[in-house]
Design goal:
40% of the residues lie in helices and 18% in strands. It has helices at residues 3-12, 29-44, 77-85, 105-109, 140-150, 159-173, 183-194, 199-207, 212-223, 240-245, 258-261, 293-300, 318-329, 333-337, and strands at 18-23, 48-53, 71-72, 89-93, 114-119, 130-133, 226-228, 233-238, 268-275, 280-287, 304-305, 309-314. A 6-stranded parallel sheet has the order 3-2-1-4-5-6, with helices on both faces. Bound molecules: manganese (II) ion (MN).
Length: 338
């Protein structure tokens, strides 16, 4: 964050405000961890604040402190609307286009509040007064740490803030494995541990959450894996029937896509997941190295994200979607095999 932005934010926070914090739809550990971390901080400095999620988040993230006070726009619509309509400052976290909040999109578009965006995805829109965007950052949670530090308040970080931000960092770095992990990420994480985050407990709660149903669903996805050696690509698919047969719950397929990348030489891994209710195929893309799944998702599957991790969707059925995907690979053969 540059010093000009810091000045503006300090001025904005110098008086009590009614603040709303909004993460993207289907919040993950980074979205919810950064939101709750910021929420605790804003309350600490005397602000009135609420986290409003567009829809529910996975049960394995509900151990995070502050969860009981989160408003869910879908479930608590009246209370969420009332708060939104009287808010004067709106932080949008872990996304950079207002279209990423589902049913909340028209509400945010019409909101009279001042917007502050804190995010690490590519190609930010320009809806915010302050845009703190840095695609090199491991996570939005690491950016919230920087945000608090820039305001001179790193020493005020409580164990609750530390736990929430730590959860965001381990989620988005896959426990410090992904290429976005910098030495600074480790330094921030170390400081969060010093300030009360319990690394083992947080990671245990986020990652060791398998149920028999989820493990069997994983085995189903792995059985469906197709390896395209010529393109250093591996993809999996899960139909709605397969999800139903394993009592699918939100978050169950989290991380499945990464298994493809654990194969030697595979640089591009994809999972296609059918969603009958929305009539779409949800797609997750992962890559290793320079091949940009952000561009691939943007150009072909109405999505985007980061260079090595992105999401998208298709309105066609599974068969057509996979066929289209396979046909596209020829155009990227050079990049994928170089
Ligand atoms: Mn993130």
């Amino acid at each position: 964050m540059n010093s000009e932005d810091v000045k503006v934010i300090k001025a904005l926070l110098s008086k009590p405000k009614r603040i709303v914090i909004v993460p993207h739809k289907n919040p993950d550990g980074d979205a919810i961890g950064s939101s709750l971390g910021l929420w605790y901080y804003l309350k600490l400095i005397g602000q009135e604040a609420r986290v409003i999620v567009p829809n529910d988040y996975p049960r394995f993230l509900k151990f995070l402190p502050g969860t009981p006070e989160v408003l869910n726009f879908e479930r608590d619509n009246a209370a969420a609307m009332e708060y939104l309509n009287s808010s004067d400052l709106c932080f949008t976290l872990d996304f950079n286009q207002l279209g990423r909040v589902g049913q909340m999109t028209p509400i945010l578009e019409g909101l009279g509040a001042t917007f502050i965006m804190i995010d690490h995805h590519q190609a930010p829109d320009s809806y915010a007064k302050i845009t703190y965007s840095d695609t090199k950052m491991s996570s939005t949670a690491e950016m919230i740490y920087n945000f608090i530090s820039s305001l001179g308040d790193a020493n005020k970080i409580t164990s609750e803030i530390a736990e929430c931000l730590y959860a965001g960092i381990v989620t988005d770095t896959g426990s410090f494995k992904y290429s976005s992990t910098s030495s600074k990420t480790h330094q921030v994480a170390a400081d969060l541990i010093d300030k009360g985050a319990n690394s083992f407990e947080v990671q245990n709660k986020i990652f060791d959450t398998n149920t028999p149903d989820r493990l069997k669903l994983l085995s189903c996805a792995l059985k469906n894996m197709v390896i395209l050696k010529n393109y250093n690509t591996a993809y999996m698919s899960l139909s709605q029937a397969e999800l139903d047969a394993h009592n699918y719950k939100k978050g169950d397929t989290e991380g499945f896509v990464n298994y493809g990348l654990t194969l030697q030489d595979i640089r591009f891994a994809v999972i296609f997941i059918e969603n009958k209710e929305e009539g779409i195929i949800k797609i997750s893309f992962r890559s290793e190295g320079e091949f940009s799944v952000n561009e691939f998702a943007r150009n072909h599957f109405h999505g985007g994200g980061h260079t090595n991790a992105a999401g998208g969707k298709s309105d066609n059925n599974m068969e057509e979607t996979v066929k289209h995907f396979e046909a596209l690979l020829e155009n990227y053969k050079e990049q994928l095999t170089r």
